[in-house]
DNA sequence: CAAATTTTTGTCCTGTAGGTCAAGAAAGGA
DNA sequence: TCCTTTCTTGACCTACAGGACAAAAATTTG
């Protein structure tokens, strides 16, 4: 019927996500996106309407990856406190692993754009809700298992942990592993 | 001897700080800075070497303001838990008050630049240390007053609170007051 | 093979970022 | 009063952001 695409959309979105993640939205130019994805600027604008559209898709992709990771991580064996602490630690370790501290794309985006842009604000909210829901479920299960004090409100504690995670991913830009791990220990002490 | 400046440097820095705070570093142009400060672009570049230099000074100014606010706020009467909670609440309320959610300049800067720029990274660290020190002092005093459990490590808890604050100032971009206040309550429960 | 359709490449375009510079203006000193 | 010095204004400059578009290329259908 017509000439087929030479590239896979999802792969392009993945690479674009990396570029946005490392440099931020404003500081990533179409030229950089073309270089990062390996396709011409023209093809990019043909496949995706605009830089903003591509960014929106990259955010969705990030959401999907993050939601699955949380799911997997929280399904591991162990007490609630151990599992939750392990989840937070793995996030921090991922932050510290790379040569450049890119943090969390959702947090970066929230800081850079959510204050001005309601659509972005909603996207970030959705992502947070996914994590909060996963944490809530795991804590509720802990309560059923007798693993967590019945006084703990699963949803409330999950929101508190969400806030801790967001903090950690910013703090990871300027602090070392021991301090971050101490913070995690404090945060899960109530479980 | 020579023609004197028509403007006060500190006032210009204050207004520049506001512009950077609202729009971020990359997304604030020299033209905007000129408009925000009320002086010509040429004068700006005469008085300050570069956009970056002006930003550095704005950061210093922000640090000074923040440090004094923390000092004042934590010196208020009340139990340690009350005073600390009041401090966090006042930060959150400031975030929610404005028409545009600009968050915390230090956090914004950390997210936007600290990953790539070691100088910025150190500046952010300094600011965090000021807040951590103020919180540590207040908690230590609480322990002496018999107000705080002796098992609490002042410095460790201060670091944890610092992380909570950073989280809150990001979460304030996408969440409402009740949730943020619940998070604060959870965070001070260990005091 | 021709036609129709969609992609790719590369050129082109407008606006703005970030900054420079030359000219004139405002002070104090000789 | 004129000179020197520093400040201000505004024009100017180069590079790139973000995107539009035309022409050529690749595929399926008839």
TrEMBL record, chains A, B:
Residues 29-48 bind DNA. GO terms for molecular function: DNA binding. The keyword DNA-binding applies. Residues 6-66 form the HTH tetR-type domain. Keywords: DNA-binding, Transcription, Transcription regulation. Pfam families: TetR_C_13, TetR_N. Gene3D superfamilies: Homeodomain-like, Tetracycline Repressor, domain 2. It comes from the Bacteria. The keyword Transcription applies. This is TetR family transcriptional regulator. It comes from Actinocatenispora comari.
